[in-house]
Structure formats: C-alpha cells, structure tokens
Amino acid sequence: MSKKLLPLVSLGLLSITLVACSGKTETIVKVEPATTTTPVVEPAKTAEVPAPDKVPFDYPSVKTDAKKGDTILAPSFTMIASSIKDPSYISYIFYNATVVEIGDTATKVKELLDETTIPNSLIIPIKAGQSAKKGDIVLTWWQSGSGMQRAYVSEGGTTPTVTYLDGDDLATEKLKADSFTVLSADWQVGTTIACKGSGGYNNLILLNVSGDKVLTSGWGGTIKVLTKSDCTPVPLKNTLKAGDTIYAAPIGSFQKATVVSVDDTKGRVKANYEFAGSTEEGNFPFGQILTAMPQ
User: Which of 183, 219, 249, 265 is the most exposed place for a label (fewest CB within 10 A)?
Assistant: First the structure.
C-alpha cells in the first residue's frame, strides 16, 4: 500500500510517530504547544549618588563655622552632583539655605523645600544679629531674586538699604534682618582677591581657605582651587578721585583704567579702559579695585 505524505505545519515542536495498526501504516503528527521564552528584564540602574563631602576639584574636607539654624549661602546638591559627573564644567550659583544638622565634613541643609547634605567647603555662613553702617560692603543674596551678592550700604542698620555690586543694573533693595554679613577684613570669605592666571591677575570671590589652598568663584561662577601665595586681597575701600590710575576687571581680569568719577551713594567708580583698540567706559564696584598691581 502506498504511503501518503501529509504536509507538516510547524506549530511549535512537531513529533512524528509511525504506528502499525491492522496491517496499515499510519503517520500520526503530534503537535506540541510552542514554548515561550520569558525575556530577562535587567533591573534599572540606580544613579550614582556622590558622597556628601565629595567635590569635583582638589580641595580638602573642612569643618564649618555655621551653627544649626543659621542662614548660609551654598550651591544646590544638584549642581554639585552634576559637576562631579562632568568636572569639565564647574559653575555654581550660591543660594540662601538653612542649616539643619552640622557634620565634620558635610552638613545637612534645607534648600527651599528640600533637605540635602553638601560639603562644608561650599558653605558660607551668614552671621545673625549684624548691623551695617553707611559705606559698608556686605555679603548677602539678591533678596527679590536669588544668588550670592556683595552690596554697598547707603542706609545703615539691622535692615540696611543697599545697592548690589555684582552686576550692572545697580539694583537697590532693603535687606532683611540676619540676611547679611559685614565684610571688614582681608581674606574674609566673600571678599575679592586677585590671583595669578594665564592672562594676568583674575578677579575672584574667596569662598574658603585651607592651609595654602584657596577655593574661589570667578567669571561665570566658575570654581577654582588656587595657591594662596599666588593671590592678593583686594581692598574693600579706596580713596579715589577723577584722573587716578586704577586696575579694575571689566571681563574677569584686572587691567589699567583711569577714574572718571566716584559715586559714594552706590559704591561705584566710573573709569575708562582700553578694549580691542578702543576706549570703553565701565562702572566698577568698590571692593573690586586695585590701586597697584600685585608684585
């Protein structure tokens, strides 16, 4: 008897069995269910969270003079974590925050509604209970906005009226009590220092001092660690008049300029300087002017 070949349809795994029954040979096709493979799902990778005292630059861990409940200036944890991930771009804005818990190398702070822990080296205490007098320069923050500012006092007291110095808009505002620190001494955090750079001496804000190292903020908020002996304190006050030669920093580096006028009400000096072959006029803040270049 001829055998008939049945067409086979693949539906998973096919098993073919030949069976003799009553002298006949039949082909039985056994169809088994197709097996399914469960995909292996990799667990989501948790983003690396830097250690609370880690910074993306060569600066030691330090203690802080701030106390629980104090107001401080500090960059956000998000900024610090982002710059650790990409150290090629370290630019910080220092916001006001409140100390929650002090640590030896890192401190828990409240930034707006969030509590985070940040390195002590990036914490700038704002001393409570201070009073400023007319002509003082204070360290504070832009209170109708945000961000660290130095300001010139036009009306003194525990809630002084000031003109902000770090910017060109000459904004005037009344500060809240316990929201500022009077700047009064060389090497005080918040003062300006002039430090050697590739193009001369750079205008920098002093953030921290540890031994022979200084932590600074420069043009665009860029953070740099420098050698203290390569830096010079910039006087908080100068006695100037029209025609005097000064050294000011129109774009981050100190250069020669000639005084046009002095504004004692807003803490500014108007001066002419050379730029790209032409004479430009700029307004330069008190506390950021040299009368002689460092030697």
Answer: 265
